[in-house]
Amino acid sequence: MLTDEQLKRYADVLLWALKVARRGRFHSRDIVLLQYDHRALPLAEILYERILATDMHPVQRMAATVVMERGFFERSKRHQLVFLAPGERELYGSLNGRIYLRAPDSLTHLRHAEPTRIGKALVARKPLRDILDKREEAGAYGWTLCTLPTEELAGQAGLSLEEYTKQIVRACYLDEEDPVSRWQAIRAEVLRLRRWLDGLAVRHLHIEAKNVDLRITPGEGRRWSGVSGHNIPSFEIFTSPDWRGTEGRYFANLPSFRNGNYVEGVRLDFERGTAVKIEADKGGEFAAKQIIMDKGACRLGEFSLTDRRFSRIDRFMADTLFDENHGGEFGNSHIALGSSYTATFAGDPGTLTRQAKRRLGFNDSALHWDLVNTEDKRVTARLAGGGTIVIYESGTFTH
Asked: What is the CATH number of the domain that holds 99?
């Protein structure tokens, strides 16, 4: 596991990330929700004290254990499945920050649960996420999350716990005396790349790899985001495109562990913005039921690229947070089925009405499923004024 010093550095980075993630400033007496898996308790205790020291109010919540989750999805009645506890809406409507510490004991404990039951529970909790989205758009709320090493994660990744821990330490720069300074420098470099991308009048992007031939449309009023504080680690540069312009095929060559299930070899075919076909080498039934969770689950919510020059992650980590930031030989791209990020709106997200989001092609869904491809690829932008420019090749941005 991480040493005491590494945990303190992790806390430093997470509090920096939380401040970066919020458009507005934090103030005395703000409320910060601290959620954590039970194995993340040592880091939660450090953060609890740090939040108190800022004169804000920490509210701690331990996540359900594996036994609790399995029992909930396998034995709950329908009214229990969609139940929201009294006070949750009020709490979420008052939150200014949220830190989630992930340290899973199992990644496949819900493999025997009915996927549609998992979907119903997620849809039932979507109003809470909508509250937080609105607060974030108004600058009143920010969030971040991280992962801590566990035997389960290491085993699923084919690594020893020591090897897995070293990957986390390297990825988050916890081996440096001042990791926050390193993250600030990375953020500055990514901001430079984002400004270049935002300056291109792109009609559509063409993503080509061995098993990918996909066209996406960035859409009106978009910008690129990245190193926004929302995830640690995070090196990706992403946008939420106009879902209606998605055409072609996509392949996720890295597996997914999602909602207690394992999915491998996902293949998607898009026509006129909708995933009309999904196949998987493993977990196909679960995958098929994910994209019918609600109306927006079969549409594109995000497109992302990671430059290998930033990321020190070079192994499969069995954790999307790390795998979507894979550096390695060719970097990575990922798409997300489901909800969009309005932080990629070029104007003030707080001004976006539901009707405006629909008009601009921002997708809405209870699902947000990241699917990662690490194959060697080329991304070509077709410009509005004619002509093309390759923006990404062999794992790096070309600027």
From this structure: 3.40.1830.10
